[in-house]
Design goal:
The complex is a heterodimer of chains A (658) and B (170). With 658 residues, chain A is α/β, with parallel strands linked by helices. Chain A has a 7-stranded mixed sheet, sandwiched between helices. In chain B, a hairpin with a 2-residue loop joins strand 1 and strand 2. Chain B has a 5-stranded mixed sheet with strand order 2-1-5-3-4. With 170 residues, chain B is α+β, with helices and mostly antiparallel strands. Classes of the chains: A alpha/beta (658), B alpha+beta (170).
């Protein structure tokens, strides 16, 4: 409908806008010099906002435009509008902003430290006192920015006193609320039409709300159609995780103390959920008598950080799996055998993460090791590592192999307030057609899963399952479309709606409408914060070119077990995409050898249970990082604990070797 | 500057600044719905179009180079029957580019496929691009979603379909 509306409008008088952002990270705006007088252009700043100059995200908020203080690099200061994008960009060069940089001391003072959040079981100090030795490592996930080529375009126009916004958004109702607040209008008078988008790193979660609010203000001011574009990247919290493990006389772990420090940027968002997601990743799969984890959240002058494909789970799981490999290496044992021996169904971790039985994981590890010939590769590279001079320019490569595994989670934690509002509604119409009402975009892959569930439950042809008109006038709020499209939660909601329709079908007149909230769908399913319905095991063999200092992937083997999935081939393709992009994020290059075997050997199998599937996306990202870290540690005879790897790191490891 | 060119098989007369990049012309003057790349520095490679059958980054093509040129965008390409060769190749191999780079990688594959058609017309039929050439050409787009093996498999599958058509040009 939005497309139709847009096409019907005369685009001749469209105004184009760009956002002028801060080039400093902390300071004060002394003055803004406007461009030379030209009636074709106009500027919008904080003083032009008719409503509140803020973007609210549940209990948190951040300013729409910087008023006088700059809190982070890239903070919107003003927006410039003109007749076409090219001239606006040229005109924007005339805008001069005078900043006064904050002093070093003030810079330091402004950083807030939140009180740490802890989770533990057992008596950590007691077990540490009884231990024979301890093993300590610090892991850093340095992935920070998304790609900067992602453009977010938002269009706004007025129609019958209704402010219409077309935006590629993962959360249409947040865009509506933000626009209504900034423009000082009622929520009903703002209609958002979400357009199709691809946002693997949640690029379209909050940026569209900011742009829509600015475009809305310009439309109200001029009455014209406005288009605004921005390609400011999404920011991610860097994570530093320190793990200290107490070992018994046999070198097996008995207790662990973990501390994670998260930099959430200038305005922390989704902090409570972030803590739970990180905690789920920090709890190891090996059995411990005592465990203690502390998550510290710090503020800085970085852009506000929020979801980034996940909310810290992948970084935390990376540290857990890399640490397991390091513990195995410390004990001089094969990391696959070490995992098979130590990974058990721990009762203590059930409060945080409920997984499939661990024997399924052990089978998966054995299978992946068998097809990759892991034991042979590992022992050969261990021999190479232990030679007097393992790295030389004569043999211009150094190889390693790494293994990691994990359970994927999807959706928010069980008691998250984000679950309360999320709603999906299904209507069985008189023509025997199903209409799905959700604010998740219909073009997403999740819709395939929904259609399959409905077709299966209600025996309706997939072609007869349609989505409701995509605008906030018609749709119900399903909440933010994040965390791997929230596979598990949304499918359970669909399932609940189908059950409701089934009980009324042939008894009550059509149409029958049934709704479900995430809270109602999840109640009674599990007592844990998160439940996982899959296991994955990934092995990566790589080599470091000691001349070019490139890290190149030779082969990747992956095996995944899902409780229930109908789209095995789609999953396999998706996993290949995730592995490829995650390798790229780690600065590891897949190499192509002409006539060589395929780079990736990925298989997905289903265990045939009736439970809803959960996503493995964030776990897979973690597995790629952990396998790369383990393989690099073997190749370079070092403790590679920071990801992504840089050439400086490699030089550092090589120099230490010398 | 007045420029006459063909965009998606339609003759168009444009009045634009001589240095306006092609991607902005497509977005603002022609309103190509799938063109949404504005990096303007050839960084992302998500704005590929076929300019006289050659895959180019539209953000690096100034308007004055369009005089008398034939431009084919992904939307235009989807309307041709040749699109189905690549669509079927994606299905057959089980690999396809991610939504970010789908349009661009598809057009680069198409540019490579056209070299086969052209070589089939001439005396030598052995001018199929090497695996190295395929990987190098696809590198015009920076998205890392496909690995080299997948790209080569897709190209080979599409080339098989294209040869079956035994057609010369659009």
């Amino acid at each position: 409908m939005a497309d139709k509306l847009n096409k019907n409008l005369d685009t001749g008088d469209t105004l184009y806008g760009i956002v002028i952002r801060s080039t400093i990270e902390n300071g004060t705006i002394l003055g803004i010099t406007s461009p030379k007088q030209d009636e074709r252009f106009f500027m919008i700043g904080p003083e032009d906002v008719p409503g509140g100059n803020r973007v609210a995200v549940y209990d948190d908020e951040f300013p729409l435009f910087a008023s006088s203080e700059i809190s982070y690099r890239g903070q919107p200061i003003v927006a410039l509008f003109g007749p076409d994008m090219e001239t606006v960009e040229i005109k924007s060069r005339e805008i001069e902003i005078d900043f006064q940089l904050a002093t070093e001391a003030a810079n330091h003072d402004l950083k807030h430290v939140h009180s740490p959040i802890s989770y533990s079981w057992g008596s950590i100090q007691e077990v540490f006192d009884q231990s024979e030795s301890s093993f300590e490592r610090t892991y850093v996930d340095r992935r920070v920015w998304t790609r900067e080529d992602t453009v977010t375009r938002v269009i706004s126009w007025l129609d019958n006193n209704q402010l219409h916004i077309e935006a590629p958004t993962q959360w249409p109702f947040h865009v509506r609320d933000t626009v209504a607040e900034a423009c000082g209008r009622t929520k009903k008078s703002v209609v958002i039409s979400p357009s199709s988008h691809f946002s693997p790193k949640d690029e379209k979660l909050l940026i569209p709300s900011v742009l829509a609010a600015i475009a809305g203000i310009a439309t109200i001011k001029t009455g014209q159609r406005v288009e605004i574009g921005s390609r400011f990247p999404t920011y991610r919290s860097p994570l530093t995780i320190s793990r200290k493990t107490a070992l018994d006389a046999q070198g097996s772990p008995i207790a662990e103390e973990v501390e994670a420090v998260v930099d959430q940027g200038a305005f922390p968002l989704f902090t409570a959920e972030l803590f739970k997601q990180i905690l789920a990743g920090l709890v190891p799969l090996y059995d411990l008598k005592a465990f203690s984890s502390t998550v510290r959240i710090v503020e800085s002058h970085n852009p506000p950080s929020h979801f980034f494909g996940d909310l810290g789970y992948s970084s935390a799981l990376y540290s857990t799996e890399a640490h397991a490999s390091a513990l195995a290496r410390n004990k001089q044992s094969n990391p696959s055998n070490w995992r098979i021996k130590h990974y058990v169904d721990g009762t203590n971790r059930l409060e945080v993460l409920e997984t499939l039985p661990s024997n399924k994981l052990r089978d998966l590890i054995e299978e992946t090791c068998a097809i990759s010939d892991f034991a042979r590769h590992h022992s050969v590279y261990e021999l190479q590592r232990k030679t007097k001079k393992s790295i030389s320019t004569f043999l211009n490569y150094s190889r390693g192999i790494g293994i990691s595994c994990g359970a994927g989670i999807s959706g928010f934690s069980l008691d998250s307030p984000l679950n309360t509002a999320a709603k999906i509604s299904i209507t069985l119409n008189t023509n025997n057609k199903i209409e799905i009402n959700s604010s998740f975009h219909a073009s997403r892959k999740i819709s395939t899963l929904w259609r399959a569930t409905i077709a299966n439950e209600l025996s309706i042809e997939r072609e007869n399952i349609l989505f409701i008109e995509p605008n906030t006038d018609q749709m119900v709020d399903t909440g933010p479309d994040v965390l791997s499209l929230d596979v598990e939660r949304s499918v359970m909601m669909i399932q609940q709606c189908c059950d409701g329709i089934k009980s009324k079908r042939f008894k009550e007149p059509l149409p029958i409408t049934e709704s479900a909230t995430a809270k109602s769908a999840l109640s009674g399913t599990s007592k844990a914060m998160f439940s996982s319905k899959n296991w994955g095991c990934l092995i990566i063999e790589l080599e470091v070119n000691t001349i070019t200092l490139e890290v190149q992937v030779r082969r990747v083997w992956g095996r995944f077990s899902f409780s229930n999935t109908t789209e095995i081939n789609r999953l396999r393709v998706k996993f290949r995409h995730i592995i490829n992009t995650s390798l790229s994020e780690c600065n590891v290059i897949p190499i192509h050898r002409e006539g060589g075997p395929p780079l990736m050997d990925i298989q997905v199998n289903t265990l045939g249970s009736n439970s809803s599937p959960s996503s493995a996306t964030s776990a897979l990202r973690a597995m790629v990082m952990a396998s790369c870290a383990a393989a690099l540690s073997q190749a370079l005879n070092c403790d590679a604990t920071a990801m992504p790897i840089t050439s400086e790191d490699i030089i550092g490891y090589l120099r230490r070797e010398e | 500057m007045k420029i006459n060119c063909t965009i998606d098989n339609k003759s168009i007369s444009l009045t634009v600044n001589s240095n306006k990049p092609l991607n902005l012309i497509l977005m603002e003057d022609v309103e190509a719905p799938n063109m949404d790349a504005r990096c303007r520095d050839g960084f992302c490679g998500n704005c590929v179009v076929l300019l006289n059958d050659e895959a180019v980054l539209s953000c690096l093509i100034p308007a004055f180079k369009l005089k008398g040129a034939r431009v084919l965008t992904f939307d235009g390409f989807k309307r041709t029957r040749f699109w189905h060769d690549l669509e079927r190749a994606y299905e057959d191999t089980g690999s396809h580019p991610c939504p970010h780079c789908y349009a661009s990688k598809t057009l680069i594959f198409e540019a490579l496929l056209q070299t086969i058609v052209k070589s089939d017309e001439g005396p030598s039929r052995d001018e199929e691009p090497s695996e190295e050439t395929i990987v190098e050409e696809i590198a015009l787009n920076r998205c890392p979603c496909l690995d080299a093996h997948e790209m080569i498999d897709i190209f080979k599958a599409a080339a098989t379909y294209r040869r079956r058509r035994r057609v010369r040009r659009y």
